[in-house]
Structure formats: structure tokens, C-alpha cells
Amino acid sequence: MSNSKYKLSLTLRPALIHESRVVAEQYTQLKDWQLVRDEVLTNNLLQARTESTSKTIYGEVSKRLKNLTDDELSLMTTSDSDVKHLVWLAICRQYLFTYQFAVEVLCEHFSKSRLHLYPEDYVAFFNAKAEWHSNLDSITQQSRYKAQQTMFKMLAECGLVNEDKEILHQHVSAQLQELIKQTNADFLRIYPGDCG
To answer: Which residue from 51, 70, 74, 126 has the highest number of Cβ atoms inside 10 Å of its Cβ?
Structure first.
């Protein structure tokens, strides 16, 4: 357990909701990640200023989206109400740290009616995980702060907290709930209100 590495590269990028939907739309048409990459980069579908930025954003988005099933990716392209929930699902499947934060902090707080999220909640969670994961302990204070800022930004972008950092009850569609149950029902716990 103590040797397992936490992937914190998510700290460099926020939720990327629009970009995720663009890539998901290409995948549902092409069904081939290499073709999707070629299409996105050749036609600058992410509307990045430089090719290197486009590659970086595509790399992060595709890494997350590859954690979704074809049915989940299809739902992302057809249901406006499910997009943010699916982006959050992809992020939590990609990053154990984020999944555990969603379950152990967001849902735990929500279930106890502690609806306000404070920076101290993140710091306490981070420090607790750092005791078990040595690579977290070696992260600089600046990187920790940036990770915290990005986490809070993602939570807001995905509609999990409001601008006052109050945790919002999530209404996950029946269709998405069913799709999640087909792979791993535990991931319903990443949505406050569906903490199980």
C-alpha cells in the first residue's frame, strides 16, 4: 500500500469539460483513439493557440476519457445534463487521489450535513494520504497549493460545489447510474447525495 504511487499530474489541468465533449464526439464517430488524435490535432478541434498546447490538452483529456465505456462516451455526446457528471467520473477513475477525496471528503461531509468545503479539509486529506504515500510527502508546498486550487476549480466546474464552496446535492440521471453500476457501483459514491 505504501508503495503505490498517486498520480498528481491532474493538478496541471482543470476539468476541461468542453474539450472532453469534443474528444468524446470524435471517438463516438471514429471508434479509434489514434484516428481521434489525428483528427483533433490536424484540425485543431480544441482551438489551442499552439500545437504543443493542443497535444498536451488532448493527452490529458484522452487519458481520462479512456476510463469511460463506449456507452458512457456516447452519453456524454447526447445528454447535456450528464456531461459534467461524466467528466468527473473520468477524472475519478483516472486519479485514485481524486476518487478518494470525493468519497472520503465530499460524500462524508455531505452525509453529515457539513456542506461547506474549506481549504483545511483538503490539507488534512492530503496530509493523511502523504503518511501512506511517500511520493506525496516529497511534493513542494507550491505544488501542493496548486493541486488544491485545481481540485477546488474542478469541483466547481463539474457542479459539485458552488462559488461559495458549498457542496451541492447531485442528481445523477437514471441512465448514467445504470451505466456506472454495470462497471463499478462504488463510483456512484463520488457524487454527493449518491454516497450510498
So the answer is: 126
Three-point CA angle 57, 62, 65, nearest 5°: 130
Indicate the Cα dihedral angle 135, 154, 105, 128, nearest 10°.
20
The answer to whether the beta carbons of residues 61 and 16 sit under 8 Å apart is yes
On the question of pLDDT at 128 being above 60, the answer is: yes
- The C-alpha atoms of residue 138 and residue 13 are separated, in whole angstroms, by 21
The amino acid at 154:
M
Residue 8 pLDDT? 55
Please name which of 38, 36, 41 lies closest in space to residue 26, comparing C-alpha atoms. 36
Q: Is residue 169 a contact partner of residue 110, using CB atoms and an 8 Å limit?
A: yes
Which is nearest to 157 in space by CA: 48, 73, 175, 149?
Answer: 149
What is the value of pTM for the model shown?
Answer: 0.92
d(CA 89, CA 64): 9
For residue 161, what are the β-bridge partners?
167
CA 142 → CA 41, 145, 146, 170, distances in Å?
Answer: 32, 5, 6, 32
CA distances from 121 to 5, 15, 103, 159, 194 (A): 22, 20, 13, 18, 20
For residue range 75-94, list pLDDT tens digits in order.
999 999 999 999 999 999 99
d(CA 61, CA 54): 10
